[in-house]
Amino acid sequence: MATRTNPVQFLQQVRAEVAKVVWPTRREVLLTTVMVFIMATITAIFFFGVDLVIRTGLKAVLGMFG
User: Fold this and answer.
1) What pLDDT does 1 receive?
2) Residue 4: per-residue pLDDT
3) Is the Cβ–Cβ distance between 32 and 24 less than 8 Å?
4) What pLDDT score was predicted for residue 14?
5) CA 41, CA 35: separation in Å to the nearest integer?
6) What is the C-alpha separation between 56 and 50, in angstroms, rounded?
7) pLDDT < 70: residue spans in the chain
8) Is the distance from CB of 57 to CB of 49 less than 8 angstroms?
């Protein structure tokens, strides 16, 4: 069973943990955001191409029988 800590100790521990956090710089946030948009665009283009190939192939196969 966990031991109970009083609220003052808890808040001190929370402050100590928050102080350990390394916050990203504005430049890091900007670069990461740009990379996310670039990767999302590349992924969207890739899946568009895959969808186009599958759709074209399916139309060709169905066209032979219909």
Assistant:
1) 57
2) 79
3) yes
4) 92
5) 10
6) 10
7) 1-2
8) no
Confidence (pTM): 0.66
Structure tokens at 28: 């890091």
Contact between 10 and 17 (Cβ < 8 Å): no
Map tokens 């808890």 to a residue: 10
The values of phi and psi at residue 2, to 5°, are -75, 145
State both tokens at 19: 């102080």
CA–CA gap between residue 5 and residue 48 (Å, rounded): 55
pLDDT at 2: 66
* φ, ψ at 25 (rounded to 5°): -80, 165
Secondary structure (DSSP) of 24-66? PPHHHHHHHHHHHHHHHHHHHHHHHHHHHHHHHHHHHHHHHH-
Residue type, 7: P
* DSSP 8-state secondary structure symbol assigned to residue 4: P
